[in-house]
Structure formats: C-alpha cells, structure tokens
Amino acid sequence: MKQLVVLSGKGGTGKTSIAAALSHLANDNGGGKSIVLADADVDAANLELILSPRDTKVEEFWGGQIAEIDQRLCAQCGECLLVCRFEAIRETKEGYAVDPISCEGCAACYYVCPSDAISLKEQIAGTWSRSDSPLGPLFHAALRPAQENSGKLVALLKQHARLRALDDDRDLLIVDGPPGIGCPVISAVSGADMALIVVEPSKAGVHDMHRIMETTDHFGVASVVCINKTDLSIEGSEEIEAYCRYKEIQIVGAIPFDSEIPRAMAQGQSVITFRPDGPASRAIRKMWRRIVDLLCGSDE
Amino acid sequence: MILTIASGKGGTGKTTIATSLALAIADESPLYLDCDVEAPNAHIFLKPTFDQSRAVTLPIPVVDGGRCDGCGRCAEVCQYHAIVVIGAKVLVFPELCHGCGSCTLQCPHTAIEEVPYRLGMLEAGLSKEGIRFARGILDIGQPMAVPIIRALQRWHPFGEMETIIRDAPPGVSCPVVETMSGADFVLLVTEPTPFGLHDLRLAVQLTSELGVPAGVVVNRDGIGDQRVDEYCQSADIPILIRIPFDDRIGRALACGKNLVEAFPEYLPRFRDLYTDICDRIIEREAVR
Q1: Is the same domain home to A86 and A139?
Q2: Angle of helix B14-24 versus helix B267-287 axis, rounded to 10
Q3: CB contact (8 A) between residue B223 and residue A262
Q4: How do strand B185-190 and strand B214-221 relate by DSSP bridges?
Q5: In angstroms, what separates the C-alpha of A31 from chain B's closest C-alpha?
Q6: Model pTM?
Q7: Domain check: are B81 and B202 in the same one?
Q8: Is there a contact between A145 and B80 if contact means CB atoms under 8 Å apart?
Q9: Measured between CB atoms, does B215 come within 8 Å of chain A?
Q10: pLDDT tens for residues A52-85?
C-alpha cells in the first residue's frame, strides 16, 4: 500500500478538486487502483461534499484539556495567575477564572495551586468519521471551531485510514492535505510515499510552493508538482518549471483553467464525471498515469 | 480599530481584499499584519521595504546533568510529552514544547534552565504608499504557528497604531482564533461555491463563539450558485461587497498586481467598505 498526500502551501489552488478527480480515475475500469481516502483538512473538510459519503459512523475526538477553577476551594492566592504564560487566568468579580480559548492545558496552574482548586477537563475537540463512498472508504473529520490539536486529529484520522487500507489490501491511500506548512501539514506529510504539490502559477502560489517543498524535503518525502490553472500566467508557469528543473522535481501534470471545474463543483461533482473529455479532465488523466507509474511502477 | 480578514476556505481572496482595503485607506497609515505565518503573501502585493526584524523564540528546558537525579517529575508534569526521562537521562523534544515553564517550576532540584528556541521571525517596513507593514514567518519544519502570530500582534514596530488590518490564515482552528481575538470586526471572504459556503458556515460559527461581529465579502461572484446569498440572508450576516468572477482580475493578481492597482475603479468601493465597517462598529458600541 502506497500513500499519496496532496498539498499546496497556499490555500485554494485546487487540492481537493484534484484529489477527488484522481480518486475517480483510480476507480476507472482500465488500470484502476483500489483506494482509501482521507481528508486531512480537518479545519475545513470539503472532500465529503463531492464524494457522496454514506453509512457514516461518527466518533468523538477528545483532544486537549482546559483548566477549571473550583470557586468553593479557591483561596484567592493568585499563584495560578503568576505561573500562567498564556494569559489564560483572569481576575473576575467572582474570583480567578480560566479563559478557555487562551488556555493551552499545560497544567502549570494545576501543579502550583496550594488549595487543589484546579482540575483539568478533557475537551471534545471535534469528531472523526468513516464512511463508504462510491470511490472507496472515506475518513474525514471536523475539528470544532476554535480548537487546538488539528495535528493530532490528522494523525488519528490517517492511522485509521491506513489500517483500513491494509485490512482491505488496497493499493493506495490518498490524503487530501490542509493548506499551510504547520502542524496539521506535518501530520499529513508523515509516512507519505509521495507528495503531490498543486501549484497555481501566480506570484503567491510560487512563493508558497517554495515553502511547502522545503517542508516535504525537511521530512524526507519526495515531491512531484502539478501546475493548476496553467494559463493564469505564462511567466508563472515558466518560473515553476525552472525551479523544478533546478530542484530535480518532476512536473507530473499541467492543467489548464477550465470553467467546467467550478461548474462541476457547484453541482457537487468531480470534473472527471462532469466533463470527461474536457481539457482539464484530459490533463488530469495523463497526470494520473504518471503518478501511478511513479508510485506503483516498481510493484508491477 | 482592529479589523481581521478571514475565511474558512483557503484561496478565496483574503489577501486580495485585505491589501486592497489597506491601499484604499493608505492616507490613514494603517498597520497591516500578515498573520498567515505559514504561507505569507501580502508583501508580494504591498511591496514594503523591510528594515526591522526579530526572531520569535520559545523558552525550552535544558537540564543540568550535575543537578538532575532522574526523578522524572518534569516528564510527569509535561502535558505535551516534550520531556522524557529514561533511566537517568532526560530528553527534550523542542517541537512538542509549548514553553509553559511547568517543568522548570516543578523540578525539585532546580536542575532546569530555559533557553530560547527559535520558531520563526518577524519583519516590518513601510510600503511606498505609507502602509506600515509587518509579518510573521514560521520556520520550515516548525509545527506551531500561534506563538508567531501572538508575537506579531504584540510587537508594535511602529508604536501604537489606530487602524490595524490583520490578514488571517485559512481554517478555523487556533491560528485563526489568535488572529480574530480582540478584533472589532471580522470580514469573511468567501466564494459562491459549495466549498466556500461550507467553510463560511464554520467561520461564522467561530466569530459568533468569539463574540466578534462579522460581514461577508463574496469574491468571484457569479462562479457558482445562490446558496451563499441565501445562507447570509437566513443567518442575518451582511454581504458588504462583491467582486465579480473575472479572468482579468485573476491574471493581474497572478503577476503580483493588487486589485485596486490594476483596476482603480475599485478604490472608491473599498473606501466605502471601510466607512461601512466603521459605522457598523460605532453603531454596535452605541447599542452596548
């Protein structure tokens, strides 16, 4: 079983649309691959919107803890306020109180409180789900707004997705990654066999491509690049090509802007089923064959 | 006044809107904070000359082997598993440490000292229009964006500022919370697609949890359907400006041109947007 993670650095370059399109191609009759899907953008999970998941089983995600002060036991000594580095302890009319949004659950206050007035309460930080979809099992999650631990949730989600792929003897785990380069991205990258980096040929897209490539490099994961909306800027596309040549990174796909992609998305569909012979679909099909060769070529 | 520009979904145009707004009110010398420290892009459009910088560090523990007897108290109190005791050896994992200082406080042998560990950096400078610009940059391989954003917001490289525009990262988790908290108003940029709508709902949920008033920007208007409009109406959230879907805008932005620079006809519309937001903030204060 191989693991492919789709990343971009910059948001909105088309990670989810491309991950969904590749999943359709994996399920095509000719030369298909059996897959499991994981949506690692747990802040804003969108893959489920175009995959028609069913039989969804939802589990709670307990992540992180928050301090709580019992006013009946509190002696108002203020030790907690002194040790908290996150400005999470507030002086109120009713006594000291914890601001749940600032609290990082470090328990420094719990250990210094001489009156045992502080306890730590585990928080439900979100949910994670497993569903069946026409394209394969889908693992997705929803972090509750304002919660921490997105990296932990991504790691948990991927662990379940991986086990499922191994149990069913599937060929490929496709992980739709989050934007950025921080904690959830690092979780999404870990253990991947290949990162597909979706880049838009804009100044901002190229800037963020450098950051995500340095990140995948840092964690020792091989990258390949897909240029999306190639016609947005010819110079931008050339800059990406030059950089990839210099870094010896393969460009596996170049997808022209195709108004059928947003139109398909508005219908809750992938462009592959919506307009199978359109320019975007043709380019994605070509890219899929290259990815399969690179990822699975050695097993066949 | 602190105005945060956010969105649940990435790539909806936060930076486009925030930089346009900053340029429209440049004569007020606003402070622009690029809080998307994982993928900062606003400098591409505002082109400041950076002349101030500083590192952002976290205090992490270092154990004095001479004093430590391997009792394991530090590992017991660390909630992040950032310090581990194996036999008499103490290992510190800096990427997991939140810098809370609990291990230092709890060590019975005062064997722990804290040293700065670099997470990233801050930079600041002026744009030619007079916008005071500052940004944070997370170092490659570092997981935690929040301490960088927090440090950026407390930096004040230009002294105390009246008008602050914060350009947020995508999503709705802790880095976004840090960027929204303390704001007087949040502008949520979305696009009229199912993805845009889904993530807008989450962002609205977050602003209401934080008790910050919000308004919506519909970007790439016409690309999808009417559901964002219907949702805003039913949730009673005002749509303050619409930017049509237009190839020419996308191409100009791709070259690093700002929206109001490429299409000056938008300047008065962004000035009106700013006035509209100020009026809403004043009105809300009056009601209070």
Answers
A1: no
A2: 90
A3: yes
A4: parallel
A5: 30
A6: 0.95
A7: no
A8: no
A9: no
A10: 899 999 999 998 899 999 999 999 999 999 999 9
